[in-house]
Amino acid sequence: MAAIDLKDTRLRFQFYEGLDGDGKPVFEYKSYSYINGTASADDVNSAAESLAGLSEKTLSNVEVVKRFDVNA
């Protein structure tokens, strides 16, 4: 029987950088690893707010990225 194992969890921040020459938004991305995969949504949100507060850039979006291994 196949099993799915959590490999790692990351927070991925999207920061607004401004507009390019065509007027399209430009974003910069930053990822933080070693996030507890079993952390609650409130804990993840609190950590994201704290980490984003360390940047001078405007935070646009935060994603939780979980990667899994599928073992047959």
Summarize the structure in words.
- The protein has 72 residues and is α+β, with helices and mostly antiparallel strands.
- The chain has one domain (3-71).
- It is 17% helix and 54% strand.
- It contains 1 helix and 3 strands, in the order E-E-H-E.
- It has one helix at 41-52; strands at residues 3-19, 25-32, 58-71.
- It has a 3-stranded antiparallel sheet, covered by helices on one side.
- A hairpin with a 5-residue loop joins strand 1 and strand 2.
- The longest helix is centred in the middle third of the chain and has 12 residues, at 41-52.
- It starts with a strand and ends with a strand.
- The model has no long low-confidence stretch (mean pLDDT 93).
Q: What global shape is seen?
A: flat
Give the overall average pLDDT.
93
Query: What ranges have pLDDT less than 50 throughout 5 or more consecutive residues?
Result: none
- Count of DSSP H/I helices: 1
Order of helices and strands: EEHE
Strand content: over 45%
User: Helix content range of the residues, please?
Assistant: 10-25%
The end-to-end span amounts to 6 Å
Nutshell version of this structure?
The chain has one helix at residues 41-52, and strands at residues 3-19, 25-32, 58-71. By secondary structure, the chain is of the alpha+beta class. The protein has one domain.
